Hints:
Elements: H1 2-26, H2 30-61, H3 70-87
Amino acid sequence: MLGQLGIFIALMGPATVSIQIKASQLASSPAEAASITAFAVAPGALAAVIFNALGGRISDRSTSRFGRRRPWLIVGALGMLVGLALIAPAPVRR
C-alpha cells in the first residue's frame, strides 16, 4: 500500500504540474487555461473509471514471474511516459 502511494506521488505530481504549466502557456487567460486543463484531464478520469475495474480483474487473474501486478504497473508507467512525451512538444502561443 505504501509503495503504491509512492508510485502515485512520483508519477502524478510531475504529470499534474506539467499539464497545468503547458495549459497556462497555451492559454490567453486563466479561464482558458482551466478549460484546456479540464479537456486534457477529463478523458483520463473517464478512462480510469472503466479501466481500473477492468484492469483489477485482469491483474488478479494474471500470473507472471514478476508477480501479478508489477508488469501492469510498468506498462502503465511507460504509457504515462509516452503521454507526457506527446504533451511536451505542443506548440506555445504567445
